[in-house]
Specification:
This protein is an alpha/beta fold and 122 residues long. The chain is built from 5 helices and 5 strands; from the N terminus they run βββαβαβααα. The protein is globular, with a radius of gyration of 13 Å. The termini are far apart.
Amino acid sequence: MTSTKKYIGMDVHKESISIAVMNSTGKFVMECVIETKASMLLQFIAGLRGDVRVTFEEGTWAAWLYDLLKPHVSEVVVCNPRKNALLKTGVRVIESMRASWLSSYVATSLNRSITESRACAH
């Protein structure tokens, strides 16, 4: 039986959200950019089937995004970019690749040890 897990990385900005979707075998199956609007994001998430897990970095939009997505997905992980192991190595993740990298990142167990903030403080 094929797993229906999907790992989604989001790079969130004021005007747009870059999204990368990876399946359970590690293959990137979709990349897109959508407008930073609740209706657009929920429409996108509704189109995905299965066990959907989302990650994004802490920032201006993190609390809003967490509250919006939590009822619609299996898991939301908010990463602390200052504690990110990849950034400590000096590797710079260019903007166009950040969402792809985050979806890979949520698919690994590294998330558990690097981020403790599942929910943003209100």
